[in-house]
């Protein structure tokens, strides 16, 4: 079954709605490079409001380890996500499962970087360029999604209710990650787009699985 992560949550009500609609994971962004940044208090309020069995993901980009530790202590995220130039051993230092985002904006040239994170619980393949922030709304060539990497691959970048079905059909990802495609403004999730995205992803997954 496809896993759905809704990223860039800044409001308790949006995160709870996403969980009720069937999102598997909620992303909370801590980098100053994001227009969807939350502070520790906001993040803790969102994480505590979520029902059980919905994963809280804390997202960082080239951050000081002390700050990552501070967020872990306060928010208790089940998963970390690193979106910058962090290396695999650096990501592993926190003793928590982590996702590593890979910038796919350079197309096929980006593919070798997918093999540099054997310690990651999964990889987020995102549409932006190397060194750029996520949440760009940019898609990449979904046919570049490898099938034989041996790690869960999460498709991100430019997904929205109108293209997520085709993305799942072409890329066959383990999960999908969406941010701007379900928003009315940065960090503000639109209830209609959120519901439409989750319904479209679930329906497409059913077709791919043949159920
Ligand atoms: O979303 C951000 O503002 C952001 C900023 C800096 C680093 C990462 C960021 N988002 C990471 C995500 O997981 C997004 O969901 C992913 O980039 C997809 O975004 P979108 O293309 O808007 O769906």
From TrEMBL:
Pathway the protein acts in: Amino-acid biosynthesis; L-tryptophan biosynthesis; L-tryptophan from chorismate: step 3/5
Domain N-(5'phosphoribosyl) anthranilate isomerase (PRAI): 5-199
Swiss-Prot/TrEMBL catalytic activity: N-(5-phospho-beta-D-ribosyl)anthranilate = 1-(2-carboxyphenylamino)-1-deoxy-D-ribulose 5-phosphate
Keywords (A to Z) from UniProt: Amino-acid biosynthesis, Aromatic amino acid biosynthesis, Isomerase, Tryptophan biosynthesis
EC number of this enzyme: 5.3.1.24
Pfam families: PRAI
GO molecular function, one term: phosphoribosylanthranilate isomerase activity
Protein name: N-(5'-phosphoribosyl)anthranilate isomerase
Organism from which the protein derives: Frateuria flava
Gene that this polypeptide is encoded by: trpF
